[in-house]
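In this section we turn from sequence analysis to structure. A common task in structural bioinformatics is to predict how a protein folds when a small molecule is present, because the ligand can shape the pocket around it. The inputs are simple: the amino acid sequence and a SMILES string for the ligand, here 2-acetamido-2-deoxy-beta-D-glucopyranose. Study the lines below before reading on.
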Amino acid sequence: MLVNILFLVSLALQASAQTQTQTTLPTTHPVSVGREGLNFEPNSIYAKPGDIVEFRFWARNHSVVAGTFDRACVPATRGGFFSGFIPTAAGARNDTVFRVTINSTDPIVFYCSQNTGSHCKSGMVGTINAAEARGVDFYKALAANASTAVSPPRVFGGQLVLSPPPPNSSTTLTSTSTASASTSTLTATSTATATGTASRSGTASATATATAGAGAKGASFAGVVGVVVAALVFA
Ligand SMILES: *[C@@H]1O[C@H](CO)[C@@H](O)[C@H](O)[C@H]1NC(C)=O
Ligand SMILES: *[C@@H]1O[C@H](CO)[C@@H](O)[C@H](O)[C@H]1NC(C)=O
Ligand SMILES: *[C@@H]1O[C@H](CO)[C@@H](O)[C@H](O)[C@H]1NC(C)=O
Ligand SMILES: *[C@@H]1O[C@H](CO)[C@@H](O)[C@H](O)[C@H]1NC(C)=O
Ligand SMILES: *[C@@H]1O[C@H](CO)[C@@H](O)[C@H](O)[C@H]1NC(C)=O
Ligand SMILES: [Cu+2]
């Protein structure tokens, strides 16, 4: 097993004058749909209000629907979202992504409603802000008992946006980190992107940590310095 570690240090400087008591920049959470079989990756997402969960569709013909813990593979009766079906050529990622804005920290479950191949029943499900005890494995077990998956009549609850993948995205990793300035009156966010290219096939993962320490109480804020260390491990 070959292990390569890439350290990437970046400085993020943000200067702003704040008049509100709290500011938090939104983060986008990418989710691959059907990239490696019938699953969402990641399938357990934690997002704060204002963040965006961006579903990126790979080969076959998948969808994403918000459901409930009450009835697996059936759409939520309040709120929710449905991307519609996004048929995609083999080995490709569709240029169209589906973006859902997160409005609260309430748990959300979602599934793929493709019945050709029983995607939901096969475990093509995920959660956002779910508790561990009632999380993706819990929903997966419920879904395994569902007979068919239900699609809402039309796309709603998010935006289909044209967002082509970068070249050779199959070997590109992106990690996003969030840093907070630790004062009682202020929160700031710095975002860093780490990109690595795998030199051989295998699984790869990236982690990033960020720290920030700056800030002033009251009405003005000088800046935030974020130091990001990303490690890419190729197996
Ligand atoms: C994708 O799946 C949906 C639902 O099963 C179906 O209505 C649609 O025709 C499929 N599209 C293609 C191109 O296969
Ligand atoms: C992307 O999805 C659209 C449907 O939203 C479909 O018409 C198109 O053929 C797909 N593109 C690729 C490259 O698969
Ligand atoms: C699935 O169905 C079986 C048989 O009806 C039942 O014993 C089991 O408890 C169910 N599992 C879940 C997670 O609902
Ligand atoms: C958040 O609110 C927007 C605007 O009303 C809505 O389109 C979106 O579907 C909501 N997000 C969720 C996860 O329900
Ligand atoms: C992507 O990488 C492969 C080798 O891994 C190379 O042959 C191909 O030309 C690259 N494509 C682009 C668009 O850079
Ligand atoms: Cu699917």
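The longest helix spans residues 136-144. As an exercise, try to locate the residues that line the 2-acetamido-2-deoxy-beta-D-glucopyranose site and compare them with your own expectations.
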